[in-house]
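Project standup — Tuesday

K.O.: blocked on the structure for the chain from last sprint. Re-posting the sequence here as requested.
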Amino acid sequence: MDLVVVESPAKAKTINKYLGKDYKVLASFGHVRDLPAKDGSVLPDDDFAMLWKVDTASAKRVKDIADAMKNADGLILATDPDREGEAISWHVLDLLNKKKLLKDKPVKRVVFNAITKKSVLDAMANPRDIDEALVNAYLARRALDYLVGFNLSPVLWRKLPGARSAGRVQSVALRLVCERESEIERFIPEEYWSIVADLKTPRNDAFEARLVLADGKRVQKNSIKTGEQAERIRVLLETASYSVKSVEAKPVRRNPGPPFTTSTLQQAASSRLGFSASRTMQVAQRLYEGISLGGEAAGLITYMRTDGVSMAPEAIAAARDAIGDQFGTRYLPEQARGYSVKAKNAQEAHEAIRPTDFTRTPQSVRKHLDSDQFRLYDLIWKRGIASQMASAEMERTTAEIEAANGGEIVGLRAVGTIVRFDGFLAAYTDNQEEKTPSDDGDDDGRLPEINQGESVAKEKIRATQHFTEPPPRFSEASLIKRLEELGIGRPSTYASTLATLRDREYVTIENRKLTPEPKGRLVTAFLENFFSRYVEYDFTAELEEKLDRISDGSLEWKQVLRDFWKDFFAQVEGTKELRVTNVLDALNEALAPLVFPKREDGGDPRQCQACGTGQLSLKLGKYGAFVGCSNYPECNFTRQLSGDAEAANGGVNPNEPNELGTDPETGDPVTLRSGRFGPYVQRGDGKEAKRSSLPKGWKPEDIDLEKALRLLALPRDVGSHPEDGKMITAGLGRYGPFVLHDGTYANLESIDEVFAVGVNRAVAAIADKKANGGRRGATAKALKSLGDHPEGGEVTVNEGRYGPYVKWGKINATIPKGKEPQSVTMEEAVPLLAARAEKAGLKKPAKKAAAKKPAAKKTAAKKTTTRKTASAKKTAEAEGDNS
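H.V.: unblocked you, prediction finished:
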């Protein structure tokens, strides 16, 4: 029996059915070891030695593989056909060698681009050795990412508090987003006008023509700048006579695009399906690893991490057969189509993403797929089949119209396009069997009959005002496209790069548009000023090119690291002498439009309006950057960092407190203000003033004197507890509304309860809290069960106060931001739990069969562990558990 190692349980399950009883297939659950997230994992002074570590969850996988290897005749490494897949195989092989389990047993490396029976069996019949060059490229990339992250991030923490991290590709992607935002801010709209004439032929057929010639000059889109100019031309056209100067019809061919690569699939899924990059890859992974089709598991698509656009000869032949069967021979070109990659630094070692079987139409497998799987498979199948279909044949008709008024001649143009033969476009018609194009084609967009030399009649002249628009913000799709054009990153990295930017709160994604947060713009400005070389597009692309050369064996990987480290280390060391004042001066200048927005009165944006004499400047605090006055502490004016300071603070003018009225009991003024942590209300002035932040859900524009006084009255006495007579109070804290009795806090459901809760309700809430042992997670709602953990014990997806998380025994691991809780799988949960347990030093849940151990002597130890667990849990909730 041979042992076969793959990455995922789903892949193992599918392949096991193909290979039968002579093979044992085990999953590694991704990488079995990695560089520990601490200093010293890569040692430049020891020729870049790398210290790998097997985490808690992976240790179990390695043990299972090692135990199986003891009784196996040979080892077959069948991980994915890319650098990461090659690296996983290398790690497994290295660990087994160190355990001296291989001895003289044969080791084979097999790769397949699709998980189908034929592909797997063909690969098993054609094994090879581990590709050392691919492994070296992986090692170089991993070392580079580590050296940048673990040397640059601490610089950010010291010089720019609040910044989370920097990365080799992440920081360049962030720079693109921030530069686009700066372009938008600098953009000045320009007025322009368009002029369109509604005309009719002698046969009373209507059409429209656009202005292309006026005053003897060609009219471009933005040529007409003013309303006066547009009105003069409109008046001239109102009384002009119109004749057809020429009519020209040209055949136009539209060719299909190539099959999908990783980036083009992510772009298409974003624009057409609304999928994020990470969601696209999750669904594609499932389609690749195998779907049960009536009891038989099969991979529906080829490997989904690729930048190649070609298909295997047998796949092209199968596509052509399917085209002939499903669309007819007219839709089949005489020769098969070939494609080549235009993206910079593309690797074409793998096929494009395509269906594994073109006879499996989307409709034929729909009942076996969920909604997202069907929609993505439908997209991939149509693009794959269309790539080998005949071109669409169209006819483009252009009519040049001359408008004469006295001695002035104005030119207009009418254009229409009709489809004579739909060709590959038929693949995108849901019911193509019902659509048989006529010889005349589709009439959509068609011009009526227009003959040269005949007169046409004017119906209406329309002059419309427009304004130029700034460049659009990047979407995930357009950012991925731009990164690919620049040769930055690789197909497998784009989704995780975008997720990191979002999780670090460097960007927000709303309506699929990426907007940089102030924190992200600060990081970019800092890196551009003090580490400019390492966020240059060409430099990052050159590093990617070097990694490619390592992977083809033409460059030595450690020499690349030596060259990089020499200059990078010197740059990092140079920042030790950098003073925070130098950093702030550079950022004040680089981010002036963001930090000091223009004032409506035209005054100096940097003048403090609170004291009138101080200068505003960026300040750095424990929680990041904010704007403060140079006259501190005499002037304690502060505000959040935002280009639109008032909008950022919920409509509160950060420079002037909003008067709400006077407290009838104290006579002190009550104001609505904005501070570093958002809007708040204040009673009185100076150090003795009473303040209260606005609770979640309360909008500044809705705050009046009554609401402000209610907030300022907190905490309030509810009444004496009936058991001990001690006072119960209600208030608003860091974690929301609460009641407090004798050191025990119990949360209330809403802010409104704080003002209305009585003794009975408060006593009941405190009693419930005590009954649950004071644990916040005791009543957390379980959204779904993932089944039993590979090491025993149920794993559930829960909804907690700070967001969704996966739970295994006493181990809770936060689900990354942007990840839909209902889509979490066991394969994704296991590494999250393992990382959480390792970071917090938590013990794995005991197996059900284990006997209970005496607990009397371990009371003190248990209390210590509980305290550590609670502390670690708070840290994870605060940081989003990004371990």
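K.O.: great, moving the ticket to review. The longest helix spans residues 132-159. The longest strand covers residues 241-254.
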